Amino acid sequence: MADSSAAAGGGCCRCCSSFILTLGFTALFMWLSLRTSKPVCSIQDIYVPPLNKSENSTYYKIYFDLKLDNENKDKGIYYDALNLTFYYPPNLTTPIGNKTFPGFYQGHKKNARRKDWVEVHGVPWPAAIKAAANGSAVFRVDLATAVRFKVMVWKTKRHKLVVGADVQVNDFGKKVYKKGVRLTSGAPERERYHARTGLLLLVLSVLSLIII
Questions:
Q1: pLDDT of residue 171
Q2: Which domain of life does the protein's organism represent (predicted)?
Q3: What is the pLDDT of residue 44?
Q4: DSSP codes of every residue in 192-203
């Protein structure tokens, strides 16, 4: 009788352990499959004709090349309208130009480029030309949009994406550094960190039950 009870108890423990193990692996799989990385946005090129000392141009427009990288291996990204805003620091309250691109879908591990000219107003050109001649003039580029991730057959809720960077331009009107300038912001990274930390803690909590 005692042996039967012990056997029954052992079977129950094995069932519980198997259930907890399955639950733990399920939570781990969900964490790995649902975590997302926001797109990497960068300015690959900028050209400001009035700063080109070899042309003496009065073409008051700025050419830009925006690159969007989806680094997710198995998740697509739906972009809302892309809103680009240009400033000439230190004045970051009054834009010198704006450009908007319609939303689109981007497949996993894909990149997209948006290139165009934007007409600008209110730039203190004498000061900008002098700054470029002495090293570099600085233009601020901000990008605001919202993204949804396509996970298998469903879409996530919208996540705001607000990023920006200062871009240095030389006295030929070109971007100083050949490498793209990444548009960044601390807020989205913190949000992603906290979301991932919460999921990781859930996984660790479940797995700790298995060990106990």
A1: 97
A2: Eukaryota
A3: 98
A4: HHHHHHHHHHHH
* pLDDT given for residue 6 in this prediction: 54
pLDDT of residue 201: 53
Strand, coil or helix: what is 158?
A: coil
Contacts by 185-188, CB closer than 8 A, 24 or more apart: 187/162, 188/38, 188/159, 188/160, 188/161, 188/162, 188/163
Q: How far apart are CA 32 and CA 22, in angstroms?
A: 15
Confidence of residue 1 (pLDDT cuts 50, 70, 90): low
β-strands 154-155, 172-174: how paired? unpaired
User: How is residue 212 annotated by DSSP?
Assistant: -
User: How far apart (Å, rounded) are the C-alpha atoms in residues 198 and 129?
Assistant: 50
Report residue 143: phi and psi, to 5°: -125, 130
Instruction: Please give the class, per CATH, of domain 38-190.
Output: mainly beta
Q: Tell me the pairing of strands 159-169 and 137-151.
A: antiparallel
Residue ranges of domains in the chain: 38-190
Nearest to 84 by CA among 71, 70, 66: 66
Distance (Å, rounded) from C-alpha 141 to C-alpha 66? 10
Q: What is the DSSP string of 122-144?
A: ---HHHHHHHHHTT-EEEEEEEE
Over residues 168-182, the pLDDT tens digits come to 999 999 999 999 999
DSSP codes of every residue in 26-75: HHHHHHHHH---PPEEEEEEEEEEEEETTT-----EEEEEEEEE---SSE
Peptide bond into 90 cis (omega under 30): yes
